[in-house]
TrEMBL record:
Acyl-CoA dehydrogenase/oxidase C-terminal domain segment(s): 229-377
Gene this protein is translated from: yngJ
Superkingdom of this protein's organism: Bacteria
Entries under InterPro entries matching the protein: Acyl-CoA_DH_CS, Acyl-CoA_Oxase/DH_mid-dom, Acyl-CoA_Oxase/DH_mid-dom_sf, AcylCo_DH-like_C, AcylCo_DH/oxidase_C, AcylCoA_DH/ox_N, AcylCoA_DH/ox_N_sf, AcylCoA_DH/oxidase_NM_dom_sf
Name of this protein: Putative acyl-CoA dehydrogenase YngJ
Coiled coil (residue ranges): none
Domain Acyl-CoA oxidase/dehydrogenase middle span(s) in chain numbering: 122-217
Keywords tagged on the record: FAD, Flavoprotein, Oxidoreductase
Organism: Calditerricola satsumensis
Family note: Belongs to the acyl-CoA dehydrogenase family.
Amino acid sequence: MNFELTTEQKMIRNLVRDFAEGEVAPGAEERDRTGRFPREIFAKMAELELMGLPFPEKYGGGGADTISFAIVVEELSRADASVGITYSAHISLGAAPIYLFGTEEQKQRYLVPLCRGETLGAFGLTEPGAGSDAGGTRTTAVRDGDEWVINGTKCFITNASYAKFLALTAVTDKSKGKRGISAIIVPTDAPGFRVLANYEKMGLKSSNTTELILENVRVPVENLLGKEGEGFKQFLATLDGGRIGIGAMAVGIAQAAFERALAYAKQRRQFGQAISRFQAIQFKLADMAMKIELARNMVYKAAWLKDQGRPFTKEAAMAKLYASEICTEVCHQAIQIHGGYGYMRDYQVERLYRDARLLEIGEGTSEVQRMVIAREIGCLDD
């Protein structure tokens, strides 16, 4: 068992770490205050050929592996989790379904511009009444000649304001339940399609989170992604990959919180010495470092399994669950180590804490992850 990163993975990590520290981190606090979406960052990432990193070169991608994708998400999130989640959603939710289930024609038409960074990727799954119960989709797509007519609402959709098209789920046959859900690629400028970005969020302020309104939106029948009725199965597979991205985000945020707490503990003096010399603080920092390392290894294992073409549903759920929960814990302890200063914006750990909170909700709540793990370990066998 070899835990050494490859030469290529190290090069990607070094490239993205330098980029994140030089281009992403400096404006993170300002963007958190204003909510401004950093389009210029993703334009620069496109120039660095990162926007299609894990996809084949023939589609404009970088031909890299899933571990490299996880490394990029971690490094971006260490600097600014809003940038991390935008990138993770672009790759794992926007581009991945088209790569996994699209026809060659669809890949050339839609995946290539995603990989080139000409548009951001998004995926329309969650609805006001269908979050954890994604099988409860109410958006409909009715066949009318050579077109689908789509009606419905989606919520909490990442990147849609900057996406020229996205795949979304809709019921194409009500009589078949979950097997009647399909995925369809829809241009965001189609008549009757509205994207609303009015949410006021606790954290991840400069990421784009939207509501989608579809009123008699018409798209050609060839925009069906994969086979009719396989949308439920497709988004389950999509979420497996997305959970690796959320796990990597959690590791990046936790790493940033740990680094700030350690630096503060070394310079903050109480009772005549740095507080890092107090065993209570040392134990907090030791636990933080240990849990971050465990979470990183879990994320890398899930990514490695995916790259090997082996089942990774259980490992992705475990990585996402553990990493997201320890991320919240690490950020909590980082604030505690900072004391009153941790409650203030100047020291940034309060931003990390707010950003961390989504990770136990998005891509399936912690409760859903435990359900997935329980199923995978055989709890539901008769």
